[in-house]
Amino acid sequence: MRSFLIGLSGAGLICVLSLAAAHATTGGEPVAVPQIDLAPCLAAAAADDMDKAVTACAAVIENDKTAKEDLIKALIARGALYARRGQIDRAIADDSRALLLDPGLADLFNARGELWLKKGDKPKAVQDFAAALKIDPNHEKAKANHKAMARELERIGAQMALAGKPSFNCARARKTVERAICGNRELADLDREIFAANARVIREARNPGEAKALQREQDDFIARRNAEFGRPGYDLNKAMQDRLKRLNGVDGY
Predict the structure, then answer these.
(1) Is 27 helix (H, G, I), strand (E, B) or coil?
(2) Which of 134, 68, 74 is nearest to 104 (CA)?
(3) What's the half-sphere exposure (Cβ side, CA atoms, 13 Å) at 204?
(4) Would you state the torsion angle of the CA atoms of residues 105, 106, 108, 112, taken in this order, to the nearest 10 degrees?
(5) How far is CA 108 from CA 116, 174, 190, in A?
(6) How far apart are CA 163 and CA 169, in angstroms?
(7) Cα 183 from chain centroid (whole Å)
(8) What Å distances lie between residue 223 and 140, 217, 237, CA to CA?
(9) How far apart are CA 128 and CA 115, in angstroms?
(10) pLDDT tens-digit profile of 133-187?
(11) How far, rounded to the nearest angstrom, does the alpha carbon of residue 44 sit from its chain's CA centroid?
């Protein structure tokens, strides 16, 4: 061994001695890889301390030696903090990365679905709620969210099917004002909304007498609309907007 060491160059000798020292230090076992401390990230996120959490969680998330389980925990913790602070895109990004690492997290699919909902992306929200239920069919929050969103999308679909169609059959329209409504998408939508709002207030009337009075008011509006349309100064769109506001509780109704 002595003659071997003498024959080595200076650099080679240093390398061999370093390895020997490391081997001796560990008692012959490989040098252990230092563990990444997850605790500061989780603590800062739980305390809602954004400044500390950003630094502490980044140290875990951006370290390629972080264990997969700890990486997922750090992403979820930081994502939840982003969500609480209204940083929806960042929260979605962290949740999405965590779900790529572990696609079996029902709670996280539901949480991301709620974030999609805040962004107004209802189809993606429904997809995430459905994914959560596929993993856990008894997930109460996901069930409630999915049910509510399915109804909302159904309602939107129905509205889209009726878009541009008034409350009456345009094929039977005879009055000039009715043909004008049929020929204008905005007016047609307004007419349908007025019809629905009037039906609602009558349904919610406290007694038959009040219901009759409400219907008379609607009949008077229609009669006035039919008589005044085409006259100088008459604004059909404004008249219909005003009627809808009154029905919906604006202007003192």
Answers:
(1) coil
(2) 134
(3) 9
(4) 130
(5) 12, 57, 41
(6) 14
(7) 36
(8) 51, 10, 16
(9) 10
(10) 999 999 999 989 888 877 766 665 555 556 677 888 888 888 999 999 999 989 9
(11) 25
Q: Is the model's pLDDT at 200 over the cut of 70?
A: yes
Query: How many other C-beta atoms can be found within 10 angstroms of the C-beta atom of residue 232?
Result: 4
CA distances from 185 to 131, 159, 205, 228 (A): 38, 13, 30, 21
Helix, strand or coil for residue 86? coil
Terminal-residue alpha carbon distance, the chain: 103
Query: Which structure tokens are listed for 10?
Result: 């200076």
Say if residue 204 is exposed, middle or buried (CB neighbours under 10 Å; 0-12, 13-18, 19+): exposed
What are 229-250's pLDDT values in tens digits? 999 999 999 999 999 999 987 5
**Six token digits for residue 38:** 């997850």
Q: What is the pLDDT of residues 17-74, one digit of tens each?
A: 344 444 444 444 554 445 789 999 999 999 999 999 999 999 999 999 999 999 999 9
Nearest to 38 by CA among 77, 83, 82: 77
Q: Where are the beta strands (DSSP E) in 14-164?
A: none
Q: Which two tokens stand for residue 33?
A: 């890889």
For residue 101, what are its two tokens? Answer: 């690492």
Q: Rounded to whole angstroms, how far apart are CA atoms 176 and 130?
A: 49
The pLDDT score that the predictor gives to residue 5 is: 36
Rounded distance between C-alpha atoms, residue 159 and residue 163, angstroms: 6
pLDDT of residue 169: 87
pLDDT of residue 223: 95
**pLDDT value, residue 161:** 57
**Rounded Cα–Cα distance for residues 18 and 2 (Å):** 16
